[in-house]
Design goal:
CATH architecture of the largest domain: 3-Layer(bba) Sandwich
Number of helices: 8
Largest sheet: 7 strands, mixed
CATH topology of the largest domain: FAD/NAD(P)-binding domain
Radius of gyration: 22 Å
CATH class of the largest domain: Alpha Beta
Helix content: 10-25%
Distance between the termini: 57 Å
Structural class: alpha/beta
Strand content: 25-35%
Shape: globular
């Protein structure tokens, strides 16, 4: 089976949906969204808590309600969607791209397209990524899997729970499991500061008296057919466990909330250059990768803390892709973006002179009474003071105009 489209979007979550709507609004009609799950919406479908949409829709929504807003926008349009379909390879050709798809219904599909938008989202690190010693019993899973089991399938993964990592999904699941009658015995965090948003620490842990052990880690998992207990130890300044202070907690479930990784195996196979810090594609100010006509947006780029920013970013990527389809945009002169003191990364890594730009960034560690600067060579083009700034909160900087003659953009805290 073959298909010919103007734009092919890989991923039917919030990023893919927003990019598709933006393409349509900007005059592109022949659009295909490919989604490997059986329905559109992505991770939003299992996020039944509220807090979504305040920036994008000016109302507080649950995850499924937010997704439904975009799904409704698709109704009555020419945008085609294919669910239960995986993209397995992207081949770059002179004037087009060929994307090979595997569909549960139609088998192998060869899709020809002018542009590809990567919107595959991210995935959780698992036990294999963090190498905790011990046995391999049932009951050890990522916090996102537990969220899917509880919220979508109505299945409780356990009654006595320990959570490793204080990422937002883990914090939200601490509250969710408590609501469902489980006993959450502890949240254990390797860093000396929480990994999730402050509001989630307050609403999901403090409100339910759930202990948070900072600068601690799990040193062993025990159990035969099912997990029965874990060993927890504080760590020293070298991130080494203090064995003499180890204690044990009984549990029948261990949820891992130890970070997210952009889903980029397909990107890498296609020859897309990846950022060594974020794990996502390197992009220019138009969200285009090093491969002309291949764009990326959302959590496949870097992990966002608000879906509203994913939508805004993906709409911009969709508009840029539409411009490319009409004009076959040629790469212009770019100004490199470099990070300095206490800034972990900033995206995009290049900006266009003479145009506005938006930078997304995260700091390396919490800081107080500090100022975030953006300089174009020696000229300050952005400056904002922060009483407190945290790695868990993505910062967005709007630059009104990048100076024409600048040679480098420098982002740092001081």
């Amino acid at each position: 089976m073959t298909k010919n489209v103007d734009a092919l979007i890989i991923g039917g979550g919030p990023a893919g949906l927003a990019a598709a709507i933006s393409l349509k609004k900007n005059g592109i009609d022949n659009i295909l969204i490919v989604e490997r799950e059986d329905c559109l919406g992505g991770i939003l479908l299992q996020c039944i808590h509220n807090g979504f949409g305040l920036h994008r829709f000016k109302e507080e929504l649950t995850g499924p309600e937010y997704a439904e807003k975009y799904i409704e926008m698709l109704e009555g349009t020419t945008i085609e969607t294919m669910t239960n379909t995986c993209a397995i390879e992207i081949v770059n050709e002179e004037n087009s791209k060929t994307v090979y798809l595997m569909s549960e219904k139609s088998g192998l599909i060869e899709a020809k397209t002018k542009v590809v938008i990567l919107a595959m989202g991210c995935r959780e690190r698992n036990r294999g990524n963090i190498a905790i010693p011990g046995t391999r019993p049932a009951g050890v899973m990522t916090a996102g899997l537990a969220q899917k089991l509880v919220n979508r399938y109505g299945y409780m993964p356990g009654k006595e729970v320990v959570i490793l990592g204080s990422g937002d999904i883990g914090l939200i699941m601490a509250r969710r499991m408590t609501w469902e009658g489980a006993k959450v015995k502890a949240v254990v965090e390797l860093q000396p500061y929480p990994g999730g948003l402050n509001r989630n620490i307050a609403q999901c842990l403090n409100d339910y008296n759930i202990p948070l052990y900072l600068s601690h880690t799990i040193t062993a998992i025990r159990g035969n057919s099912r997990i029965t207990e874990v060993d927890i130890a504080p760590i020293n300044e070298y991130k080494e466990p203090k064995k003499e202070d180890t204690f044990t907690l009984k549990c029948d479930s261990l949820l891992l909330s130890v970070g997210l990784l952009p889903e980029n195996e397909l990107s890498q196979l296609a020859g897309v250059n990846l950022d060594r810090v974020t794990g996502g594609p390197l992009i220019d100010t138009n969200y285009m990768t090093n491969i002309s006509g291949v764009f990326a947006c959302g959590n496949v780029l870097h992990v966002h803390d608000l879906v509203d920013w994913v939508s805004e970013e993906s709409e911009a990527a969709g508009k840029a892709a539409a411009d490319y389809i009409r004009n076959q945009t040629i790469q212009k002169n770019k100004i490199a973006v470099r990070v300095g003191n206490l800034v972990r990364y900033a995206l995009p890594t290049v900006l266009e002179p003479g145009k506005p730009g938006i930078l997304s960034l995260r700091v390396i560690a919490p800081a107080e009474n500090t100022t975030l600067y953006v300089k174009a060579d020696d000229e300050i083009i952005y400056k904002k003071g922060h009483k407190k700034i945290f790695p868990s909160e993505m910062q967005r900087i709007e630059i009104k105009e990048v100076p024409q003659k600048a040679k480098m953009i420098h982002v740092y805290l001081e």
